[in-house]
């Protein structure tokens, strides 16, 4: 009787996941269990690359700088964050039926990643070739295409993850992914900080975007090698009809409804970020080095916090949502208090990157907590339905929340941060009412 000798890849997988004698494969089949180590690292590497691509084409930082360089109207610049975030979510309820028909769904992710490569590369080309209103509108169109393509990846990723990675290892995988991505982001931020000493122009930022685009193409090639076994295909009927039927989940499923409410309130961690940048620009200035400092702060936050949040999420993802929401709210109220009552600190360069760093830690917790929670909450096509319905609704809510940029001119940036902090407190309270799913 021959014994199986673990490969180096399997040894590394067992080490990272604290496996000792027998590998645990909760909620996946035996065939998928045998392929877990290989799939684990393919998913890690591909998502690490796309995470770096996201950072190097971030609408809150890099794309804002690029659009300002090409003299795009401020009105269009204000749309890039809600379009990028909500555009990937809104169509999901209506395309989920297509994905449900596919017993193997990794190629949906591959397609979405290739389309994102084309869209981001298009932004780089526009930045080099056009200016003013034309450049602004073309970048918006590319961003719409990017967001729609991102929607394909969002649904397919959670399904493939649920079919290939054991239930108690998913949060840790996302944590390691975010941590390695954070290290790469840190290197990118240091490079931008170094280059800011020169009088960099649109060429530099365009080539940065071209590099970001290439990461999605490489990730697609890697992801295509995942060993995914056929899964459930029930329910692949009329998309629009089924979309409305699946909206009934909100009425029928109290657990899911409460999760969607909680997730909506937890948007505070994402929506707050641009306002810290605005405060820095107001009190410190718009020098290019600030871009590098914010990227570095966010990268360090990912490196430090993601593995910790990931391990915590495998034990209790709802507690991760609670703690990260409390951190987001507390930080916002502290920063508002400093601005209002300690004006001597307002022009300190260190204040805003440090705040952005803490916010990055909190946002990692929100993301890892809610992603792990919804994947563990259901199996099979129920998972696809939950992801599609919740993402579509969050897309609508994001568009509404995008109006906060208009509120900033009516009240103040500090006022918007305070309002979002209150929502964070409500999100923390609501998350404590959710049942455990691990």
Please tell me about this protein's structure.
With 438 residues, the protein is mainly alpha-helical. The protein folds into two domains: 195 residues, Growth Hormone, Chain: A; 199 residues, Growth Hormone, Chain: A, CATH 1.20.1250. It is built from 20 helices and no strands. The protein is globular, with a radius of gyration of 21 Å. It comes from Leeuwenhoekiella aestuarii.
Q: Can you tag this structure with a few keywords?
A:
438 residues; mainly alpha; Growth Hormone, Chain: A; 2 domains; 0% strand; globular
Write a concise synopsis of the structure shown:
The protein is mainly α and 438 residues long.
Question: Which helices and strands appear, and what pairs or packs with what?
Answer:
Elements: H1 8-16, H2 30-34, H3 36-56, H4 62-69, H5 74-77, H6 80-87, H7 92-100, H8 106-129, H9 132-164, H10 170-195, H11 202-223, H12 239-247, H13 249-252, H14 254-265, H15 268-283, H16 289-341, H17 351-377, H18 380-401, H19 404-410, H20 413-431
Helix pairs in contact: 1-3, 3-10, 3-11, 6-9, 6-18, 7-9, 7-12, 7-18, 8-9, 8-11, 9-18, 10-16, 10-17, 14-18, 14-20, 15-16, 15-17, 15-20, 16-17, 16-20, 19-20
């Amino acid at each position: 009787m021959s014994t199986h000798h673990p490969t180096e890849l399997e040894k590394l997988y067992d080490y990272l996941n604290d496996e000792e004698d027998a590998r645990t494969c909760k909620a996946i089949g035996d065939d998928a269990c045998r392929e877990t180590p290989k799939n684990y690292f393919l998913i890690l590497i591909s998502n690490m690359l796309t995470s770096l691509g996201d950072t190097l084409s971030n609408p809150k930082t890099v794309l804002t700088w690029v659009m300002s360089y090409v003299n795009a109207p401020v009105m269009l610049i204000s749309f890039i964050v809600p379009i990028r975030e909500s555009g990937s979510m809104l169509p999901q309820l209506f395309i989920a039926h297509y994905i449900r028909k596919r017993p193997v769904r990794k190629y949906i992710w591959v397609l979405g990643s290739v389309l994102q490569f084309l869209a981001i590369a298009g932004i780089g080309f526009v930045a080099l070739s056009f200016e003013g209103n034309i450049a602004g509108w073309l970048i918006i169109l590319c961003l719409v295409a990017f967001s729609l393509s991102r929607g394909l990846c969002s649904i397919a990723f959670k399904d493939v993850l649920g079919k290939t990675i054991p239930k108690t290892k998913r949060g840790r995988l996302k944590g390691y992914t975010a941590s390695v991505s954070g290290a790469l982001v840190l290197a990118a931020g240091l490079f931008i900080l170094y280059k800011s000493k020169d009088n960099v122009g649109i060429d530099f930022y365009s080539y940065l975007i071209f590099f970001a685009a290439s990461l999605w193409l490489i990730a697609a090639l890697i992801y295509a090698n995942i060993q995914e076994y056929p899964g459930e295909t029930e329910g692949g009927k009329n998309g629009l009809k089924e979309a409305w039927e699946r909206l009934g989940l909100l009425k029928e499923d109290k657990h899911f409804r409460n999760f969607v409410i909680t997730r909506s309130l937890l948007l505070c961690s994402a929506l707050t970020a641009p306002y810290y940048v605005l405060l820095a620009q107001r009190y410190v200035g718009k020098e290019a080095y600030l871009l590098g400092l914010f990227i570095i702060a966010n990268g360090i936050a990912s490196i430090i916090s993601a593995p910790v949040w990931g391990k915590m999420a495998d034990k209790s993802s709802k507690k991760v949502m609670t703690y990260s929401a409390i951190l987001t709210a507390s930080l916002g109220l502290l920063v508002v208090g400093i601005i209002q009552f300690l004006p001597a600190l307002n022009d300190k360069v260190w204040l805003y990157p440090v705040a952005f760093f803490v916010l990055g830690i909190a946002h990692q917790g929100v993301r890892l907590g809610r992603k792990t929670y919804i994947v563990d909450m259901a199996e099979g096509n129920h998972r696809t339905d939950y992801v599609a319905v919740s993402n579509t609704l969050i897309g609508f809510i994001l568009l509404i929340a995008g109006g906060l940029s208009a509120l900033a001119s009516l009240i103040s940036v500090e006022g918007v941060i305070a309002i979002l902090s209150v929502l964070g407190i409500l999100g923390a309270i609501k998350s404590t009412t959710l049942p455990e799913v691990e």
